[in-house]
Automatic annotation (TrEMBL):
Pfam families: Pyridox_ox_2 (PF12900). Residues 1-11 have a biased composition (Basic and acidic residues). This is Flavin-nucleotide-binding protein. Residues 1-22 are annotated as: Disordered. Coiled coil: none annotated.
Amino acid sequence: MADSESYDKHPRSTVNRYGKPRGRYDYQTIHSVVNTVPVLHVSFPTPDEDDPFPAMIPMLGFMGDFSAPGSDDLARPLDLYLHGYISSRLMKLGGTGDGVHEGLPLTIAATHLDGLVLALTPNHHSYNYRSAILHGFATAVTDADEKMWALEKITNAVVTDRWQNTRLPPTKAEMVSTQIIKVSVVSASAKIRAGMPGDDRNDMKNDELRAKTWIGVVPTWTQYGQPIASPENRVKEVPAHVRDFVKAVNEREEGTAKDAALQ
């Protein structure tokens, strides 16, 4: 990583189409996208020489720094931690890196959809979105303390404070069957689109077209619903940490989507 506030630009990570208004390379933007998306999509090479396609799987993960475990600062170099089962294909694969970095090369994608952008013509329809692509080299986390720290962070990324509101500590069997991999990120970029439609000047002068075609943005966000208790549940009320999480995320994502439409 660069010793600045941004990732160095690389041909693989440079945003080309609408790169100037939409491309972002700063740590804060990229890490924020990753740490607020429910699912990451991870692509990696396979050893099957007869199959030219890379594999891709959805995973849980977060950006963090084990050397500063109490810090929430996203505007600095961080590693990406991914959660998986020891028997999965990704966890079984090895990697020698590129001669400089150790590990298996991965590409990770994260995307938020913030709105449907409806224009006068099909060509100018779009989405408001926040997306990030990261490239890095993955190695298994073998340090017991780092692995436990990462498991707690990933659990709390699902629902805030969930770790301490469950049975702890994990059993030996659970720790053995679960693997954490750490990705040393070497390049990354974000691409963000916000605002109203951008129609052609001639279309905007067409009164007949504008009189019959609605244009604007339909804000879009992830909405968590009312928690539904398991038939085996014995707790009478939904705990505060779950209620508060649902309320906070719903308000945050709704606000972000509506703000994006008005930019």
